[in-house]
Amino acid sequence: MFFKSMLGKVSGLVVVAMLSSSVSMAYMESEELGEVPPREVVVSVNDVFVPGGLKSTDRAFVLLSGLFPNGCYNWDRAEVTVDQHGKLVSITPYAQVNQGMCIQVLVPFTREVVLGSLSAGSYRVRVSAGDGTFQEKTLNIEGVN
Predict the structure, then answer these.
(1) Do 48 and 31 sit in the same domain of this protein?
(2) How far apart are CA 95 and CA 71, in angstroms?
(3) What HEC string does 52-74 produce?
(4) Which residues form the domain of 120?
(5) What is the pTM of this model?
């Protein structure tokens, strides 16, 4: 009985030591090879929702939605440029792509992009994609009486 009890404890320790060893070896290998940082990419969107009824005193915004091609993509940010004189709002959406193994499913996303305060008028909202194309919608900002 004593022998079986000791054998169980020893084999348990061997398994723990083996797991610990393989984890630390994998960590050392990743350190030696150097971790690959995520890369930034421009992503395309499927839809741009432009709300109606916004006033010049409101915080203007749009909603962007789309599908990331796999689980390695994570929303990062949207760069917004507003040309008040030309009545053009340009938006470029970005994602971070982690390098390595990824789940191969489409991952939906929806994000609010704040445009800030806009003077009254009709604006073209242009959302760029990574391939040189863009979507364009119209955003009407009403003046305040």
Answers:
(1) no
(2) 12
(3) CCEECCCCEEEEEEEEECCCCEE
(4) 39-142
(5) 0.74
